[in-house]
Specification:
By secondary structure, the protein is mainly alpha-helical. The chain has one domain. Helices cover 77% and strands 0% of the residues. It contains seven helices and no strands. Helix 4 packs across helix 7. It starts with 11 loop residues before the first helix and ends with a helix.
Length: 211
């Protein structure tokens, strides 16, 4: 996807793993927590509008809570960056580690029967952190959550390395969503959260080694 020795070459596998993770997270939230996203905020903005119009099976409160949690996580990620005054790669590991802790909090809340919002809020905050660090890294075509622009680039630009990156990114998100959907059907939200926690931990360990 990037030439050998390119500054982004070692980051690309980590970002693809996070893209897969985003598919898992949205599968858990949309299928298990009541038609709401925690990674895809475009969808939540639309859901909020639909819910306010009176659409059945959509909750304006759930969409608003997810949006608030996501923005809170993104603000925290940005504040951490400014406080540390460090390059993006140096705070990649602590931010992703914090996201992993938030996933663990969501899993504990699900096991303890804490209710929808006790699970939804830490997941949304974690995805806000993830998007803050990915935004700061600025790796082309590997945003981990937003696919509209990625698909547009695939269709509008000439084929090349960027096309491969975009295609793999779309496939990673779709595969994560598929895997999450299958796990949700067989094990419920708890099983999906266990998978998210395991993958998130692996990403943190891999990022630590790649530093």
């Amino acid at each position: 996807m990037f030439p050998e020795g390119h500054p982004y070459a070692r980051l690309a596998p980590l970002l693809l793993a996070l893209t897969f993770l985003s598919g898992l997270v949205d599968a858990a939230s949309f299928l298990g927590l009541g038609r709401v996203f925690v990674a895809n905020m475009t969808g939540n903005v639309v859901f909020l509008g639909f819910a306010l119009s009176g659409a059945a099976e959509l909750s304006a409160l759930a969409a608003a809570v997810a949006l608030t949690g996501f923005v809170t996580g993104a603000v925290a990620g940005g504040a951490w960056r400014r406080e540390a005054e460090a390059e993006a790669r140096r705070f990649l590991v602590p931010l992703l580690a914090t996201q992993t802790v938030l996933t663990a909090v969501a899993l504990v809340a699900e096991i303890a029967g804490g209710g929808r919002y006790a699970v939804l809020v830490p997941l949304a905050c974690g995805m806000g952190l993830q998007n803050a660090v990915v935004h700061r890294l600025g790796v082309p075509d590997l945003t981990t959550t937003v696919m509209t622009r990625t698909l547009t680039g695939m269709a509008a630009d000439r084929p090349g390395r960027a096309t491969v990156r975009r295609g793999v990114s779309v496939a990673a998100l779709a595969t994560g969503a598929l895997t999450g959907g299958l796990l949700q059907a067989r094990t419920g939200v708890e099983g999906v959260l266990v998978a998210i926690l395991a993958l998130s931990t692996a990403v943190v360990l891999a990022a630590g080694r790649r530093r």
